[in-house]
Specification:
Radius of gyration of chain B: 25 Å
Number of strands of chain A: 0
Structural class of chain B: mainly alpha
Order of helices and strands of chain B: HEEHHHHHHHHHH
Number of helices of chain B: 11
CATH superfamily of the largest domain in chain B: MetI-like
Number of domains of chain B: 2
Distance between the termini of chain B: 17 Å
CATH architecture of the largest domain in chain B: Orthogonal Bundle
Number of helices of chain A: 15
CATH architecture of the largest domain in chain A: Orthogonal Bundle
Largest interface: A-B, 107 and 113 residues
Strand content of chain A: under 5%
Strand order of the largest sheet of chain B: 1-2
Shape of chain B: globular
Oligomer: heterodimer
Helix content of chain B: over 70%
CATH topology of the largest domain in chain B: MetI-like fold
Order of helices and strands of chain A: HHHHHHHHHHHHHHH
Number of domains of chain A: 2
Number of strands of chain B: 2
CATH superfamily of the largest domain in chain A: MetI-like
Largest sheet of chain A: none
CATH class of the largest domain in chain B: Mainly Alpha
Structural class of chain A: mainly alpha
Radius of gyration of chain A: 25 Å
Largest sheet of chain B: 2 strands, antiparallel
CATH topology of the largest domain in chain A: MetI-like fold
Chain lengths: 283, 301
């Protein structure tokens, strides 16, 4: 069951293959079913199914629903806002992680181990735990409903530092020796050796961070109290759940909000999957 | 952490002392940005949670009164907290085993040489493209009692207190399919073909190969997966908020949901105790994760 066809099995290969295709297709339909029903939802007039049960194919197709969702949800604004916050978080995490990882990988200083343990220990403090204290801090700073409030807690991450440190430590010592002989300073070594050698790790890290920032829900939900500061994920809730009778508009908004992620995933599939599985499989 | 002699620049010996100081200063200044952020938004909140847990706002709302550790123990023993804890645990029981089995099944079935298998693999991993809010909106449309196609299926009915959590859990199960699939598949791909081939030559049938060779070999990956699914489960919030808003009658108010509701200054004391409780849980699960990670490193060597 777990591996490919056994040569001495009774059935001819073509029939067994057909069986596999059938099984895999059924499972694909099952996985994609919610997506398909969402698309049908968006395109059908809601009154059609509120009374008669939802059809499997769209009824009374209305493409205008995407325009409506875009305009009514003020999606342009919230997508732009989310894009800005995502960019800030991603760039800041890359910079702070790179610098700290460099120090941990290549420099000698007192209390290094203690500091590293303190760093890793912050994995025990996810935003769900620190939420209400951080909201209080943001409120005291008067940062509710602001870009700095939306991004501040995510400008550094232990995960990023750990990942890049691993990458930096994997740079072969021959390369380090060569760089030293060439008279490279720290900055030149980082720019010309450490980062280029670790391009795959850096790429995966950037993509995973950007995905996480774009998809973030709990923090922006708590750090925003005015509708115009809602990030796209939080705005989806207001657009879709508040008026079930206009749910087609809500799901159209959800589809629009997924487009950037979908594009990113299609273009960078390999890197994203490598980032998602980092730590799951050794090697 | 053994990094001796790894500095790209080595100063001549006569200036060794001052160069060491300079290296340390450079090190600290490189760490500073990250540690400031993690200090202000990681450690300082932990201190504040303890503080809020020990103090309550006074009657006039302009100061605090010390209530002491008794406040912590009374909140932890209170039905609200225990309820939230139990609902969170139930949520794990609904989402983790199901998610694991589905991910494993899809990965085992699509880990084979077959033309076009990449298409199926792309489909099975596709739910990583959805955010938790999008997944929640999708399932709102499927299981909402008023407009959902499956709104009147009683096993997952959001309208009844005893089934609502199962309806909510579907969101997480579906959204995690992509990630679980991708992780198990990566684990399977890391198993050398030669090992499986050797088992086949030894006369192991497909089922024995699966249970005696493949699964034991990917067990570290599966353990890793269980841990992250548990962490995700404990941290779930959007599905409850979007599908049921904690209802009916509080039946889907997980610990995180209850904490979120207590973010206003008047309730922050109770919320902080709950957050410390969640911290305790995260602690246990993360220690489990670190232990597993350590084991795995030895395993691979």
């Amino acid at each position: 069951m777990a591996s490919d066809g056994h040569p001495s099995r009774g059935l001819p290969r073509s029939i067994r293959n057909a069986g596999w295709y059938l099984l895999l297709s059924v499972l694909s339909v099952a996985v994609l079913y919610p997506v398909w029903m969402t698309i049908v939802r968006a395109l059908s007039e809601p009154f059609v199914y509120i009374n008669e049960g939802q059809p499997f194919l769209p009824v009374a197709i209305d493409w205008g629903v995407f325009n409506t969702a875009w305009a009514e949800g003020v999606m342009g604004r919230s997508m732009l806002l989310t894009l800005g916050v995502t960019a800030i978080i991603t760039i800041a995490q890359l910079v702070t992680s790179m610098l700290a990882a460099y120090a941990f990988a290549y420099l000698r200083f007192p209390f290094k181990t203690v500091l590293f343990v303190l760093l890793i220990a912050t994995l025990l403090l996810p935003i769900e735990v620190t939420l209400i204290a951080n909201i209080r801090t943001i409120r005291e700073l008067d940062w509710l409903n602001s870009i700095q409030g939306l991004s501040a807690p995510f400008l550094a991450s232990a995960f990023g530092i750990f990942l890049l440190r691993q990458g930096f430590m994997g740079v072969p010592s021959e390369l380090r020796d060569a760089a030293r002989l060439d008279g490279f300073g720290h900055i030149a070594f980082l720019r010309k050796v450490a980062l280029p050698v670790n391009r795959p790790i850096v790429g995966s890290f950037v993509l995973i961070t950007a995905l996480g920032a774009w998809n973030n829900y709990l923090w922006p939900r708590a750090a925003v109290t005015e509708q115009r500061w809602e990030t796209i994920q939080v705005a989806l809730r207001s657009i879709s759940v508040s008026r079930p009778e206009r749910f087609n508009v809500g799901v159209a908004a959800a589809i629009i909000a997924s487009v950037p992620i979908l594009v990113l995933l299609i273009v960078f599939q390999k890197q994203i999957i490598r980032g998602l599985t980092a730590g799951a499989v050794k090697g | 952490m053994s990094l001796s002699a790894s500095a790209p620049i080595q100063a001549p010996t006569r200036r060794r002392r001052s160069s060491r100081v300079r290296e340390a200063l450079l090190g600290y200044s490189l760490l500073a940005p990250a540690f400031i952020v993690l200090g202000v938004f990681g450690y300082y909140p932990l201190y504040r949670l303890v503080h809020f847990a020990l103090y309550r706002p006074n009657r006039f709302g302009n100061g605090e009164v010390y209530v002491g550790p008794s406040n912590i123990s009374s909140v932890l023993a209170d039905e609200e907290f225990l309820d939230g804890l139990w609902i969170s645990v139930k949520y794990l029981l609904y989402t983790v085993p199901t998610g694991l089995v589905i991910g494993m099944l899809l990965a085992l079935l699509s880990h084979r040489r077959l033309r076009g298998i990449k298409v199926f693999q792309a489909i099975f991993s596709s739910t990583v493209a959805t955010s938790v809010a999008v997944a929640s909106v999708v399932f709102f449309g499927l299981v909402n009692p008023k407009i959902g196609k499956f709104g009147d299926v009683s096993f997952i009915s959001l309208a009844k207190a005893d089934s609502a959590l199962r309806g909510v859990a579907l969101t997480s199960i579906w959204q995690n399919v992509g990630l679980t699939f991708v992780i198990v598949l990566a684990g399977l791909q890391a198993v050398p073909d030669a090992v499986i081939e050797a088992a086949r030559v030894d006369g192991f049938g497909p089922l024995r190969r699966l249970f005696r060779v493949t699964l034991p070999l990917i067990s570290p990956t599966l353990l890793f997966l269980i841990v992250i699914l548990m962490i995700f489960g404990f941290q779930s919030f959007a599905p409850m908020e979007i599908l049921t808003h904690g209802g009916p009658a509080g039946a889907t108010e997980t610990l995180v949901f209850k904490i979120f509701q207590r973010r206003a200054p008047g309730q922050i004391s109770e919320g902080s105790v709950m957050a410390l409780g969640l911290f305790g849980l995260t602690f246990v699960v993360t220690l489990l994760q670190l232990t597993i990670l350590n084991k795995r490193v030895h395993y691979g060597e």
